[in-house]
UniProtKB/TrEMBL annotation, chains A, B, C, D:
It is found in: Cytoplasm. It comes from Lysinibacillus irui. The keyword Repeat does not apply. This is N-acetyl-gamma-glutamyl-phosphate reductase. Its EC number is 1.2.1.38. Catalyzes the NADPH-dependent reduction of N-acetyl-5-glutamyl phosphate to yield N-acetyl-L-glutamate 5-semialdehyde. Residues 2-140 form the Semialdehyde dehydrogenase NAD-binding domain. Belongs to the NAGSA dehydrogenase family. Type 1 subfamily. GO terms for molecular function: N-acetyl-gamma-glutamyl-phosphate reductase activity. Keywords: Amino-acid biosynthesis, Arginine biosynthesis, Cytoplasm, NADP, Oxidoreductase. InterPro entries: AGPR, AGPR_AS, AGPR_dimerisation_dom, AGPR_type-1, NAD(P)-bd_dom_sf, Semialdehyde_DH_NAD-bd.
Length: 344, 344, 344, 344
């Protein structure tokens, strides 16, 4: 397979390279950029010296059409214009940006503050939450790879909500992310001396992943609800931990919640149900495509606490994108992704 | 004033020393320990060389009785035995442990798993949430200094709940703390290589600060409720950020919530109401006794997000203890505590 | 005293504010900027809300002339033009930039790549290494506050070189700094995700502090030598540790080196000679004006290892600047600087 | 191949597992322990759930003899007793501890403060600095895998010293390591709150890697010298950066030093010569077996600064051990180790 990556210099692009380098079905990777044509990739990224000593290429449709897969890992508002002409021209398209995730174009424009992609492209696109949309992904030409937060949240909540074990009417999701989620562009907020040893909340009640989560709850669990969702910046590089709170439906036990999750994911190699909180942490999934989930019911309140952890750059971005590519090409989902988490 | 510190080698004790060193009304500090009698304090703590070159002393009642104030900063289960004989013997007693916080002895024993202090001592003790209990603190002989999490949570929620602006019946509090909250004793969980670059949840729905928060909501806001409260370990040393979620009462606006907080704290120098989330972060209060609070109402859900930040070792421990001492001795509350936060 | 700070928004400026806020002889502080006139300072820096709620003022000579002291904490190349007209006009001038440190103008221009300040201003300026230049500082109108690295290096090496106990002819200085030394301007190098968990060397053999150290060795120890000096970026915010290596002069013992340092600094409250390496670390001086020094002689090689630690923003910048102000105004050197280091 | 790991619960052991899991020639891994027989490995290490769900086994010679390779990753003083009876009994033995590194038994006992291994075992053992001892490693039964610091130092210095391009008579090596180098056992020094935001020096002039480096300089470059070597603790988890200083031999240029290194390593896939300091950093080799080297000559002093970076747990431990295994079994050296460094 020949693979093109547009937006290779971002962290999503770098993670795609990290995994595709060891993917047995990929024999060629080319990197595209909007602004640094001809620059030797390894001159920008020292860790890739002797590994990716190829120049960045200019984005051009005739070049992109010749790949088997094109990954786009660009800021929002780029692929809404770039990808529509490529749909159906040959390559599988896997977009890591948010441009094709929201089916409601007005919602996209309200939450992203940008012009939406053309309606027909958005309708053609398939939401790439691998474990929940496998068959449609297999057939898809254009995949909207899920956001990092929605991946962590949905994988943990969907089974419980779909089976009506928890009450979706008062759902509070408190999410926390490492700073790599903010991308590679320097800013005051991500300046080491100000981000280090600091804990903050951002985009209070206005994060663009809210409508994405609500849409997926409707799509996969057939529940329309309005969630409370907030995001915090954690002084570490990688990792998302999402803590969700909801009332347990009458008569439902913690054991049933755990059983529901185990059943839902028994055939899914990257999903692990954890029963001991001491075994759960972002470093237990760091660098890998795993999503670990813990559920606990507080007998005092009959409310459930549901916790999930992922590596935001892997299962929350590049890893899930490659998992989707594997599905599209009828490869085992773990191909090229079967690595041991870092831990330390 | 002569001040004794029992448990000086813990982080709470070290912070007491840091502030009392510059407290204009304190002219003598002596340090007590259960196990390292005679050890030169600065030989254990290099940062105190030339500053605190005195030996640790053995805990003895006749010595402790001679102080104007005795701070105890010990693990739970120590002062329940140590302090009762000292009550009324002269010194003001300010206990930073949890041993005198819960009026319900059975609750203490259930949540702490230890024998409670004698009933009469517990009844005599005054809960030292300075801004909410000033008059009783002024008269108190034995102060139960609040826990770090309860301080952050209560200061932000009490005005809103007392004025019935938010609904206390479904209160979700998602708290996050730096690792110094776990104390100075090494463990696998706090081992640098495993705590660094990791984000985890601990004591899921079982943290001993739950009954303390519920008791204070009842005591100061006259509301009996059962809260959902969880705690997360953040890879940084200092700081607590608590994010609380509740429905806003019908007809109440965000502006009213903000006004309520501003009114409640207008005469309290350490409480700051923040209206821009970009100005809120644990590093904005680091090293200081400030508590910063932000409130936001999500118009989609009519739920409030209430965020507060403190330095867990200062406002959440040593700083509030000294603030209470100031109250007891009719000093301005800011005496010895008027420092600029670190930020970086 | 009335104090003006030019360049208040940088980290040096923020530290000046942190200490001057508690300085008993300072009753007014005004903040100046080149570009953000009228902006409320606390709107930029949330930690200063209720503490410094004053607007930034435009830099103007008539305003600056009325202060007792003007601190300038600006990038190199600014005060070389700004300060000369102010010399002798009233205020004591304390420049935290490098513009007046090098007496050799050609050397300044070679190492800084900028135009040097006028020769007469440079000659008038006094190098503000407090412990080594106290009398001249007392009389000075314009003080060139030392660089962060030179402060750490010179305080540890000067006594030993001046007394000819170590051989200055082959002096290797390996210095390490926290990232706040790079200032507050975001860049790829200081972007959290790329600076965190990374250790690197920078400005290899070309750091502009090299001629400053060599000049001071000549000035205070009367030794002309060419040093080897390198700097490393450490993934933490504050702190410098400098490790220096030199041969011990024949017949000289470790005990003599220690004694030399102790004698040199016995009357200097901020200098501490440490004899146990376990007591030495940047966190032992964090947030304070202390400089801790350790010396060890390796009997195998007869070479000395000399280690010093400072907080780069305090003793390496704002703290030493205030110490110099204290000297100029005949205040005890510790005035406003007598704080306990943070440790944790 | 069947592989046994003794000391699997340490960080070296965990890294062996991380890489061997993806090693194409390894089909079975068993884990041995001195004290936790029967414990499910993944119950101790959450990141290995579903990956290594096997129990720890008791160390027993009859079991160990049946493996093709036995890695031992234990504290010093363990394998000196454990391994000698296994030599020649079948498995290739690769010892990651220091017990077989020093040929001079008295030196081992002096620097390690422990009883040395039997003389004949030590003599039989082969020092496993892969790039410099490949042929002897290929034949070896017992490999003494190099220390983390010696690996970083020797790979960068050996070519230059062997070719007599730098002067070994005054060699200063200033090394810095992340905290994982201290192992997995909690201590005050590695307690997060005290290690975070701290920079310190340890084992001043007494690190046990000193004689190992000197022995290898003699063994591979035929130079007997006494080095100055110090080690610093950096607040990050992984990575070593070693900065070495030496005079350049008369008439030798920087270009010759660079050429020497490039020639020495042109056929060695894990060695990369870096010419831009901005491309060098521990995060450029993080998680990988690469060693990156930079050399710079200061024209002012005619001294060379030689910098090398490795991941202490990979090239400095488990990675090099597997590289040695590959050599022993005539596999390409990169087998199972061909991964892209993490960078972020």
């Amino acid at each position: 397979m020949k693979v093109g990556i547009v937006g290779a210099t971002g962290y999503g692009g770098l993670e795609l390279i990290r995994f595709l380098h060891n993917h047995p079905a990929v024999d060629r990777i080319e990197l595209f950029t909007s602004s640094e044509e001809g620059v030797l990739f390894s001159s920008k990224f020292g860790h890739l010296v002797t590994i990716v000593d190829t120049p960045l290429k200019k984005i051009a449709y005739d070049a992109l059409e010749k790949f088997d897969v094109v990954f786009t890992s660009t800021p929002s508002g780029v692929t809404s214009e770039l990808l529509p002409p490529l749909v159906g021209k040959g390559p599988k398209l896997i977009d890591l940006s948010g441009d094709f995730r929201l089916k409601d174009l007005a919602s996209y424009e309200a939450w992203y503050g940008k012009k939406a992609a053309p309606a027909n492209s958005v309708q053609q696109s398939v939401y790439g939450l691998t474990e929940w949309n496998t068959e449609r992904i297999r057939q898809a030409t254009l995949i909207a790879n899920p956001g990092c937060y929605p991946t962590a949240v949905l994988l943990s909540l969907l089974p419980l909500i779909k089976e009506r074990l928890i009450d979706p009417s008062f759902l509070v999701i408190d999410a926390k992310s490492g700073i790599s989620g903010a991308g590679n562009k320097p800013s005051q907020t991500t300046h080491f001396s100000e981000a280090n040893e600091n804990l903050s909340i951002y985009k209070v009640n206005t994060h663009q992943h809210i409508p994405e989560i609500e849409q997926a709850l409707s799509m996969f669990a057939h529940v329309d609800t309005t969630i409370t969702f907030n995001t915090h910046l954690i002084p570490m590089t990688r990792g998302i931990l999402a803590t969700s709170y909801a009332s347990v439906m009458p008569g439902i036990t913690e054991a049933q919640l755990i059983a529901c999750l185990k059943t839902a994911y028994e055939k899914h190699p990257f999903l692990r149900i954890v029963t001991d909180a001491n075994s759960l942490g972002t470093n237990r999934v760091k660098g890998s495509n795993y999503c670990d989930i813990l559920v606990n019911v507080d007998a005092r309140t009959n409310r459930a606490t549901i916790v999930s952890v992922i590596d935001n750059l892997v299962k929350g971005a590049a890893g899930q994108a490659i998992q989707n590519m594997n599905v599209q090409f009828d490869l085992p989902q773990t191909t090229g992704l079967d690595v041991v988490p870092f831990f330390i």
